[in-house]
């Protein structure tokens, strides 16, 4: 079943986070992921608001988790740590 990688982010260091974004995109693509929403307009209805929201679609939960733990994504993530506050989850779709 396909899965969605959903991140809610507050960027605290735009320069470092920009380096994360440059590296994260190719790492996500290498695992079959593609962005379906990336920092677009949103309406917060409940919970903590984060100004940047990203959704990527993966072939499966396992593919998304493998991406997260991959060497390439972890190298990207080194730039996001300390440069953002974020929540990230992977959710299987019903498709």
Brief account:
This protein is of the alpha+beta class.
| Strands ordered across the widest β-sheet | 2-3-1-4
Low-confidence parts lasting 5 or more residues at pLDDT below 50? none
C-alpha end-to-end distance: 7 Å
Beta-strand content bin = 25-35%
Average pLDDT reading: 95
User: Would you identify the CATH architecture?
Assistant: 2-Layer Sandwich
What's the domain count? Answer: 1
Q: Tally the helices.
A: 3
Count of strand segments? 4
Residues in helices, as a percent range: 25-40%
| Structural class category | alpha+beta
Radius of gyration: 13 Å
CATH topology: Alpha-Beta Plaits
Shape: globular
The CATH class turns out to be Alpha Beta
Please outline the major beta sheet. 4 strands, antiparallel
Protein name: DUF1330 domain-containing protein
Organism: Sagittula salina
Domain DUF1330: 2-93
Pfam family, one: DUF1330
Your description of this structure?
It is a single chain. The protein is built from three helices and four strands. It starts with a strand and ends with a strand. With 95 residues, it is of the alpha+beta class. 38% of the residues lie in helices and 32% in strands. It has a single domain (3-92), classed as Alpha-Beta Plaits, CATH 3.30.70.100. The chain is globular and about 35 Å long. The chain has a four-stranded antiparallel sheet. The mean pLDDT is 95. Residues 2-93 form the DUF1330 domain. It holds the Pfam family DUF1330.
């Amino acid at each position: 079943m396909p899965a969605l990688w959903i991140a809610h982010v507050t960027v605290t260091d735009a320069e470092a986070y920009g380096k994360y974004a440059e590296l994260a995109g190719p790492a996500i693509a290498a695992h079959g992921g593609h962005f379906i929403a990336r920092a677009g307009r949103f309406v917060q209805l409940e919970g903590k608001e984060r100004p940047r929201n990203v959704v990527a679609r993966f072939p499966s939960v396992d593919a998304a988790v493998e991406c997260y733990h991959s060497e390439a994504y972890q190298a990207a993530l080194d730039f996001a740590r300390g440069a953002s506050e974020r929540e990230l989850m992977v959710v299987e779709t019903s498709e």
